[in-house]
């Protein structure tokens, strides 16, 4: 019986010692917790390696884009002028034909048909020219968009070398990004970088 009491007392002493050790180490852990919480807070306040550019603001302020747009508009205006001149010429000749037909000036029905065929050919040429101009302008616009995109992507790689962003997103209106903090908006920096880079290349 005494032996059993010694065993039970021994177990109790060991249990008390274990509880004391656990309690003691637990307090040490409690002391360290505020530092861990502070570290978490600091990491939460630091910026993520992500940024976005407002495309709507970028394009009107990018000198290269404005230069490309002016060139495209100049080409379009030149081609519209050519079309307008052809249209005026056709209208004049068509009105002239109508007047002659009403006055019955043509020498023969065959001569009148020849004039009608000539006018029809002029009209077809005009329609073909308009289609050609439309296709050319669409192709130029597509090339311009591709050139612009290539330039921006190449420049952003250079821009990002010291920045080390993992992602640079595009934000046009509310497309792609519904909300982002102002601290992630690098539009102004990118505009300044692109314009400086383009100006140097001129």
Helix count equals 5
Helix content: over 70%
Please mark out the parts with pLDDT under 50 across 5 or more consecutive residues, or reply none: 27-44
In what order do the strands lie side by side in the largest sheet?
Answer: 1-2
Alpha carbon gap, first and last residue = 103 Å
Outline: rod-shaped
What is the beta-strand fraction?
under 5%
Number of strands: 2
Give the ordered list of helices and strands.
HEHHHEH
What does this structure look like?
It is a single chain. The protein is mainly alpha-helical. The chain folds into 2 domains: 1-46; 50-201, no CATH class. 80% of the residues lie in helices and 5% in strands. It has 5 helices and 2 strands. The protein has a two-stranded parallel ribbon with strand order 1-2. Helix 2 (55-61) runs parallel beside helix 5 (187-201), helix 3 (63-103) packs antiparallel against helix 4 (109-163) and helix 4 packs across helix 5. The longest helix is centred in the C-terminal third of the chain and has 55 residues, at 109-163. Residues 27-44 have low confidence and may be disordered.
List descriptors.
single chain, 202 residues, mainly alpha, two-stranded parallel sheet, 5 helices, 2 strands, 5% strand, rod-shaped
Quick overview of this protein structure:
This protein is mainly alpha-helical.
Give me the secondary-structure topology.
Layout: H1 2-45, E1 50-54, H2 55-61, H3 63-103, H4 109-163, E2 167-171, H5 187-201
Parallel strand pairs: 1-2
Helix pairs in contact: 2-5, 3-4, 4-5
């Amino acid at each position: 019986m005494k032996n059993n009491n010694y065993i039970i007392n021994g177990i109790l002493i060991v249990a008390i010692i274990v509880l004391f050790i656990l309690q003691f180490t637990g307090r040490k852990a409690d002391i360290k917790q505020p530092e861990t919480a502070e570290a978490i807070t600091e990491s939460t306040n630091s910026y993520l390696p992500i940024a976005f550019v407002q495309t709507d603001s970028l394009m009107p302020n990018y000198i290269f884009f404005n230069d490309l747009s002016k060139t495209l508009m100049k080409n379009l205006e030149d081609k519209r002028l050519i079309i307008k001149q052809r249209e005026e010429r056709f209208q004049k000749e068509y009105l002239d034909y109508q007047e002659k037909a009403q006055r019955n000036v043509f020498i023969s029905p065959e001569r009148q048909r020849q004039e009608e065929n000539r006018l029809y050919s002029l009209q077809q040429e005009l329609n073909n020219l308009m289609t050609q101009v439309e296709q050319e302008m669409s192709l130029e616009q597509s090339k311009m968009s591709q050139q612009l995109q290539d330039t921006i992507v190449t420049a952003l790689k250079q821009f990002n070398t010291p920045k080390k962003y993992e992602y640079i997103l595009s934000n046009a209106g509310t497309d792609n990004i519904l909300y982002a903090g102002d601290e992630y908006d690098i539009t102004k920096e990118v505009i300044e970088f692109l314009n400086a880079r383009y100006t140097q290349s001129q």
